[in-house]
Design brief:
Mean pLDDT: 74
Oligomer: single chain
Subcellular location: Apical cell membrane
GO molecular function, one term: sodium:phosphate symporter activity
Distance between the termini: 67 Å
Number of domains: 2
Number of strands: 4
Strand order of the largest sheet: 1-2
Keywords: Cell membrane, Membrane, Transmembrane, Transmembrane helix
Protein name: Sodium-dependent phosphate transport protein 2B-like protein
Strand content: under 5%
Low-confidence stretches: 22-52, 586-644
Structural class: mainly alpha
GO biological process, one term: sodium-dependent phosphate transport
Number of helices: 23
Length: 644
């Protein structure tokens, strides 16, 4: 009984003391800053006696830091014979499952290409057949992007351009922008693949950056080299000298289709297309020819082609129209692609642990000392080139790298040279394919193939040897940060960069040269001014008038994605399917009132630098949030967000 009284009195005293402490902590004087130095994160009471020490801010994890691939399984030495056998069996089964999924993944990319050809291939052929429009190099560039996106193959776009040159519809100089556009359009595949990792923000950040680093390199290379080519024609001149330097002869065995031989048995069971139809349409031939191949084997009788064996592919026998068959195949290919990628990512997560993780971190992503730090990048570039030659497609190779980057196996700095190597590798396969061309078209085919090669070599020389000039990595990382916060932005980026912008330029060209150059010149001048102001804002803001040192004077929707994000969230909340892509990035994204908004769009900075006052406000808010979590009712007043 006496013990109960003692315990009761102690509890009462503790409650009284706790109440005094909470009242003291909740007072406004508690958050008076000592200094305005942003490096001092300390707050004390007005009487300079530190009655309360705020909790330390949690260490901010770099979202670009590769995660630790830890192994929580039982060590091998502690397993008995049965469990050792079981583990070996599971590992073998996982490798077989991974090989099968990779095979289906590659086949699904082939189906995706065929589906796009059925849906939009003829339209692409008719677009590129307008030789008058191709007199404008910018229009030729955008047509190259559109056609490659629609047929999902840069080699097909290039071969169409070669056929048009051989038919004297266009000259080599007019075909070069089409090849440049094809180089841009081929990167759409791995951007689509990156969308499959949108459920995890950090994985999506890394995967989307790994995919768009290819886009950024291609666009930056075009922005620099297209004006040079239009002005001086250096690609045409170099490749013309190279082709004339040697007497090139047709090589019947030059074209190798290692990967096609593996995938054809399955893809030919589903659909079989006549790839020559697009070339015929582009050169003004039969516009009604069917892309779905009806006859697989023919023989000549009295100079007449007679069908010996009809194609037994599933879609070829259904009798569906090309557009309907294309839509069906598109649905099948996207479903297969998504399923394979999800299962591949899960398998890689389970396999890349323990010793394998240590090996990967030690050799693939390790930081080496000079000169190895420079040589390892060129080694990665060489590996990317060789692997692309083996699989005969840069899209397949870069699409396979994207999920690996997402789960943190390969860093963005390693992905970049691998992607550049893939760009070189795909031009090598183009050269090999050119050597199999008819002797009448051999020179033009080789010249365009060499244009493709020297275009990519020029881009690498511009944006790789000097670390400072690796702008594609910076831009891709910035895009990754935006998509991690606003995952719907990835769809917007995909539609804008590969469909709407090329389509807008193409439609503008139909209005005539005067309107095209007037509107295009105004847009180009506006973009140059905005980019220049952004650069000065980042580097030397004092050079600008006070009002131009930030974009706060503009309406919010003109310098922030928040208004559009709010609209999309309101619409998306009606559909539970989109809930995974509309959740806020963290607790502070929805609760912060005093914390400044970090979603501003800036072409140079991936994260905002905070002022001293803002830093104190952030810490003060964290303290208030801490008190709320511990039972107090104090709440901060919400202030307006600041956007640069």
């Amino acid at each position: 009984m006496a013990m109960d009284k003692i315990v009761g009195s102690l509890n009462k005293a503790n409650e009284t003391k706790l109440g005094r402490n909470i009242a003291q902590i909740s007072s406004p004087a508690m958050f008076t800053p000592l200094k305005t130095d942003a490096s001092k994160d300390s707050f004390v009471s007005s009487d300079s006696s530190p009655a309360f020490s705020p909790p330390h801010k949690p260490h901010e994890v770099d979202p670009w830091e590769l995660p630790e691939l830890q192994d929580h399984s039982i060590p091998w030495s502690e397993l008995d014979a049965w469990h050792k056998f079981k583990r070996i069996f599971v590992v073998i089964a996982k490798f077989l499952a991974l090989a099968t999924l990779l095979y289906l993944f590659i086949c699904s990319l082939d189906f995706l290409s065929s589906a796009f050809r059925l849906v939009g291939g003829k339209a692409a052929g008719k677009v590129i057949s307008n030789s008058e429009l191709l007199q404008n190099p910018i229009v030729g560039l955008m047509i190259g992007v559109l056609v490659t996106v629609l047929v999902q193959s840069s080699s097909t776009s290039t071969s169409i351009a070669v056929t048009m040159v051989a038919s004297d519809l266009i000259r080599v100089r007019q075909a070069i922008p089409i090849v440049m556009g094809a180089n841009i359009g081929t990167s759409v595949t791995n951007t689509i693949v990156s969308l499959m990792q949108a459920t995890d923000r950090n994985e999506f950040r890394r995967a989307f950056a790994a995919a768009t680093v290819h886009d950024m390199f291609n666009w930056l290379t075009v922005i620099v080299l297209l004006p040079l080519e239009v002005t001086f024609g250096y690609l045409e001149l170099i490749t013309s000298k190279l082709v004339d330097f040697k007497d090139w002869k047709q090589e019947s065995g030059a074209k190798s289709e290692f990967l096609k031989k593996l995938t054809k048995p399955l893809t030919d069971l589903v659909v079989k297309l006549d790839k020559n139809v697009l070339k015929v349409i582009a050169t003004g031939g039969n516009q009604t020819a069917s892309l779905l191949q009806e006859c697989c084997k023919t023989k000549n009788v009295n100079n007449t082609s007679i069908c010996v064996s009809k194609c037994g592919a599933l879609l070829n026998r259904t009798g569906l129209s090309e557009s309907v068959a294309g839509c069906v195949l598109l649905a099948i290919s996207l479903f297969t692609l998504c399923l394979c990628l999800i299962l591949i990512v899960k398998l890689l997560h389970s396999m890349l642990k323990g010793k394998i993780a240590v090996i990967i971190k030690k050799y693939i992503n390790a930081e080496y000392k000079f000169p190895w730090s420079h040589l390892i990048g060129y080694m990665a570039l060489f590996i990317g080139c060789v692997m692309t030659i083996l699989v005969q497609s840069s899209s397949i190779f870069t699409s396979a790298l994207t999920p690996l980057a997402g789960i943190g196996v390969i860093s963005l700095e390693r992905i970049y040279p691998l992607t550049l190597g893939a760009n070189i590798g795909t031009t090598t396969t183009g050269i090999l394919a050119a050597l199999t061309a008819d002797s009448r078209n051999l020179r033009n085919t080789l010249q365009l193939a060499f244009c493709h090669l020297f275009f990519n070599i020029s881009g690498i020389l511009l944006f790789y040897p000097i670390p400072f000039t690796r702008f594609p990595i910076t831009l891709a990382r910035h895009l990754g940060n935006i998509t991690a916060k606003y995952r719907w932005f990835s769809i917007l980026y995909l539609v804008l960069m590969f469909f709407l912008i090329p389509m807008f330029v193409f439609l503008l060209s139909l209005a005539g040269k005067v309107i095209f150059f007037t509107v295009g010149g105004i847009i180009a001048l506006f973009l140059i001014i905005v980019i220049a102001i952004n650069v000065i804002q980042s580097k030397k803001p004092s050079w600008l008038p006070l009002k131009l040192q930030n974009w706060n004077w503009l309406p919010l929707w003109m310098h922030s994605l928040d208004p559009l994000d709010g609209l999309i969230i309101k619409v998306g909340e009606r559909f539970s399917f989109f809930s995974c892509c509309l959740q806020p990035a963290s607790r502070h994204d929805t609760l912060t009132g005093l914390r400044t908004n970090q979603s501003q769009i800036h072409i140079l900075e991936a994260a905002r630098r905070y002022s001293a006052t803002e830093t104190h406000l952030m810490i003060a808010y964290d303290n208030v949030a801490f008190l709320q979590c511990n039972g107090t009712n104090s709440s901060p007043h919400k202030s307006e967000s600041t956007h640069l």
